Amino acid sequence: MPTADEIDAPPAIRSRLRKLGIERPDDLVLHLPLRYEDETRVTPIAEAPVGWPVQVEAVVLDVALRQAPRRQLVARVSDAGGEGSTLFLRFLSFYGSQKSGLEAARDAGRRLRIFGEIRDGFLGREMVHPRYRFLSDDENGGESDVDALPPSLTPVYPSTAGLAQGTLRRLIARALRAADLAELLADGWREQHALPSLPAAVAFLHSPPPAVDESALQARAHPAWRRIKFDELLAQQLALRRLSLARRRQGAPVLAVAGELARRLQAALPFALTGAQRRVAAEIATDLEQAHPMQRLLQGDVGCGKTIVAALAACQAIEAGYQTAFMAPTEILAEQHYSKLRAWLEPLGIEVSWLAGSLGGKARQAKRQQVATSAQLVVGTHALIQESIDFARLGLAIVDEQHRFGVVQRLELRRKGVNPHQLMMSATPIPRTLAMSYYADLDVSVIDELPPGRSPVKTRLFSDTRRAEVIAAVRAVVAGGRQAYWVCPLVEESAKLELQAALDTWAALTAELSDLRVGLVHGRLKGDEKASVMAAFVAGEIDVLVATTVIEVGVDVANASLMVIEHAERFGLSQLHQLRGRVGRGAEESVCVLLYQQPLSRTARARLKIIFEHTDGFEIARQDLRLRGPGEFIGSRQSGVPLLRYADLESDADLVELAQQMAVQWLRNDPERVGRHLRRWFGQREELLRA
Ligand code: ADP
Ligand code: MG
User: Can you tell me whether residue 260 is helix, strand or coil?
Assistant: First the structure.
């Protein structure tokens, strides 16, 4: 016997439901239609529009098997004698029983109720693969109950293979009858915001009356939809905020120090911190002195100088006698951080260690030993958390380019049983509504100022028919003593093809620029090979670095002043922005050339226009959100939060704000209500949000 919290259905059905995220009757109740079909009325064939789903009733005139162009079953039906009242039903795949059924209906003059879309076909007006059923005995012109037209629109639910709409509808209707949809919002407040009650909204969306404004339903702008979206956003806010409150109750080492190491580091720098850097560094320093773990996101555009801020935080942890882990998403980037941080910190007597997946067995063993004991700062890729590495006294974990890591990795760190302060850094600015929604449990610091003396990067768009001009520009740059990046085409479908494209590009450029030193770096190189190519580029021994997107994040070579991106139309906006940020790091004017191939798709054209017109990462992210929608922007893998199913962060921004206010109130005053709402929306799945 299923318990009240289980769905009463065979195991095979239950497992298919699980694929849709449906575990409990409550999940069925909140599984809302994608769209509706209007089976509430019957349209005369002669009046039925083309290209629109309609329901008709007709008798079968004849049934035939045709062979050309392929085997198909064709039935001609009609609902009146007159002009335009016949219709062909065409089935490209069918059972033999379908043919005999239709023939029997023809012989008996039995009526069919047919639902589908009419189009103008080869034979005349036709429906391809319509849904149909035989009406019960029609002899007396009367209709029996089973043939009564439904009083409301027929919902079409998101489904999965092997789960028929009929089954879903039945299960959902049953769950609705048993559901406890007790209203949790105050009536006055609801009315003030024009939100219907929950039972009303749910009932309405599962079976709207035929007279409803279909466009508002479809656009999910109907008040019933807004109510559901509000509840969904509220559940998300509650879960995230409760999590953040729980985090505040956990203990973390208090890293209160005199600040000697940080002072010495700053004194040794060849530059002064910008005002923004000083401000965020102070915010972080204060967090580290608290007895609960910091969870701070440090946001700042490419090149704004986040690394030094992180190094200052590391100094604080180290001075307090704790270790710091510094993680980067790629080995190249980790390597760069390693050499930079060593240069900064070793003169202060700090022991800096390196750990990456490519380290061989023996070396790794030794590193592990060092991490377990003496290392004060450990730099590496996520090998740092993936492996069974036991930090002796981990006080601070820094995660660079946070958007590249999944929340899963954040989780792993927590599961290690350590509870360090966490500083996450990202150059991909997160638009406000997204931040409010997905990062409700993070504090955010923003560096909104670039170091002085940077010249903005000029962006130029070139069709690839003008490649020769670009080659000439590369020559000119190198002749002036500068260096260039040449980014290879992205081949999303296949890493192998992408590698081939990189090798081809490199071969072509080596031939075209035979008097220059052309290097190549790509993702398939071993760690030390990559490192040595990068080192040669940093040292100026390579003029032109041909690269795949391994250089996308964080690479820092100030003498490089030209960036060429081949097939720029294939890249995403944030990728283009990150890549462009690799130049313009010195005082001299830098250029980013976007080579594209015609014809451009509409969105590719829109992307190139945005990147051409904007240099501000924040604005680019906002436009990106507009272009792609938040789901793709953040990616469920990255957010770790199940994507909002119904609410849209851009168009429902007002609801996000309302939900946030309500969540704060409930958490303060009404924990019991919080629990009920979260159980309704997530059941046991709230675990998913624990990241
Ligand atoms: P990002 O925020 O993109 O990670 P980095 O930390 O790599 O940026 O900094 C970019 C470059 O700017 C580095 O070479 C860094 O040493 C330099 N830098 C950082 N802060 C300043 C500053 N206040 N003045 C001058 N240069 C700075
Ligand atoms: Mg960086």
Answer: helix
Residue 534: how many CA atoms within 13 Å on its side-chain side? 24
What is the pLDDT averaged over residues 380-400?
Answer: 79
Dist. CA 81–CA 86, nearest whole Å: 9
Question: Comparing 632 with 16, which gets the higher pLDDT?
Answer: 16
Confidence of residue 638 (pLDDT cuts 50, 70, 90): very low
Return the bridge partners of 580, or none. none
Same domain for 505 and 607?
Answer: yes
Instruction: State whether the beta carbon of 429 lies less than 6 angstroms from ligand 1.
Output: no
Cα of 81 from ligand 2 centre, angstroms: 76
CATH code: domain of residue 480: 3.40.50.300
Q: Are residues 438 and 328 in the same domain?
A: yes
Least confident range from 2-16, 51-65, 127-141, 408-422: namely 408-422
CATH of the domain at 128: 2.40.50.140
Calculate mean pLDDT across residues 301-323.
94
From the CA of 11, how far away is ligand 2's center (Å)? 50
Closest atom, ligand 1, to C-alpha of 274: 23
Q: Is 271 in the pocket of ligand 1 (CB under 6 A)?
A: yes
Regarding whether 427 and 357 lie in a shared domain, the answer is: yes
Query: Would 418 be classed as within a structural domain?
Result: yes
With b meaning 16 or more CB within 10 Å and e meaning fewer, what string describes 323-349? bbbbbbbbbbbbbbbbbebbebbeebe
Task: Provide the number of structural domains found in the chain.
Answer: 4
Rounded to 5°, the CA angle 411-412-413 comes to 90
**Amino acid (one-letter) located at 38:** D
Residues 463 and 374 in one domain: no
Lowest mean pLDDT among 28-42, 319-333, 357-371, 643-657: 357-371
Q: How far is the CA of 331 from the centre of ligand 2 (A)?
A: 13
Cis amide leading into 69 (omega within 30): yes
306 Cβ inside 6 Å of ligand 1: yes
Residues 275 and 406 in one domain: yes
pLDDT greater than 90 at residue 88:
yes
The CB of 300 under 6 Å from ligand 1? The reply is yes
% of residues, the chain, pLDDT over 90: 50
Average pLDDT over residues 374-390: 78
pLDDT at 439: 63
Mean pLDDT of 620-648: 60
Nearest atom (ligand 1) to Cα of 300: 2
What confidence score (pLDDT) does residue 551 get?
62
Residue with CA nearest ligand 1 atom 5 = 305
Say whether both 461 and 414 belong to one domain: no
In this predicted structure, which of 313-317, 352-356, 626-630 has the lowest mean pLDDT?
A: 626-630
Helices (H), 597-670: 602-613, 617-628, 630-634, 636-639, 653-669
In-domain check, residue 283: yes
Domain assignment of residue 436, yes or no = yes
- Asked if residue 402 belongs to a domain, the reply is yes
* Ligand 2 midpoint to CA 505 (Å): 27
Q: Which pLDDT band holds residue 401 (cuts at 50, 70, 90)?
A: confident
Tokens coding 446 = 């923003």
Cα 208 to Cα 55, 196, 200, distances in angstroms: 17, 14, 11
Is the pTM above the cut of 0.85? no
Does residue 554 have its Cβ closer than 6 Å to ligand 1? yes
Q: Yes or no: say if 161 and 17 are a contact pair by the CB < 8 Å rule.
A: no
Looking at the CA of residue 581, tell me the nearest atom of ligand 1. Answer: 3
- Ligand 1 within 6 A of CB of 116: no
Kind of pairing between the strands at 377-380 and 352-355: parallel
